[in-house]
Amino acid sequence: MYLGTGIYSVLEASRLIAVPTRDIRRWLFGYHYRKTPGDAESRVDIAPLWQTQLVGEDFEEDVIGFQDLLELRFIREFMRNGVSLRVVRHCLNSARDLYGVSHPMSLPKFMTDGRTIYAEAVSEEHIAASMVDLRSKQTVFKDIIRPSLYSGIVYDGDRASKWYPERSARRSSPIVIDPKRQFGSPIVEETGTPTSVIYASYVAEGGDHQAQAVTARVYEMPVKYVEAAVRFEESLKRTLH
Fold first, then answer.
1. pTM to 2 decimal places
2. Quick one: how many helices (H) and strands (E) in the chain?
């Protein structure tokens, strides 16, 4: 039923894209605040930025899909560059209307068209956020949307089909996140073995070079794949620290 969707808990998503769980929950599941503390009548509800792929499904905890995960990477860049949530929301709404899809920022065409969408959003917002002049806010887009942000994403048409989180123009990696395999868990592409399983074996065997060799024999793969999996898993542990 969920083949090709990918399933990620909020904590797993947090580790993979380096965004605190609190932010993911606010962006994807909404939140509320009170204009006047203690006054129920002053409650303001803030809607989610978009409806997640697995909304309404019967899981024991909040989960998201692969497309949600990639979209969050782009929201992360907007927020890291000081773009307000209000502008982000406007960008999303405009892009959804333009492209007719639920997850527009991870589209390859957003790399170019998004400049106009962002400029329009900033134009509507600049009066309320006049601390920085409009021209400066528009140039921020160059820092947010850049070719390297799309590096490692493989597309089937306009739809992202898998993601190599450690690949770049200068570096290759056997680690892939493919929603059609292992429910989207990071795996060694050639063998399909989850990196978390490889890492657990490596730790259990002592966590040294000998442990890498033993794990490689157990899972019948080259040592370089074990090294890549260990490096990847350890990078996740450092992500939010």
1. 0.89
2. 10, 8
Over residues 32-73, the pLDDT tens digits come to 888 888 777 788 889 999 999 998 888 889 999 999 999 999
Task: Name residues whose C-beta falls within 8 Å of residue 144's C-beta, 6 or more positions apart in sequence.
Answer: 74, 77, 78, 81, 83, 118
Quick: pLDDT tens for 211-234.
Answer: 999 999 999 999 999 999 999 999
Residue 123 CA: distances (Å) to CA of 86, 96, 223:
12, 18, 53
Report residue 211 as tokens.
Answer: 């442990």
Q: Where are the domains of the chain?
A: 161-241
How far is it, in rounded angstroms, from Cα 139 to Cα 74?
A: 17
198 burial type by CB count under 10 A (0-12 exposed, 13-18 middle, 19+ buried): buried
Q: End-to-end distance of the chain based on CA atoms, in angstroms? A: 36
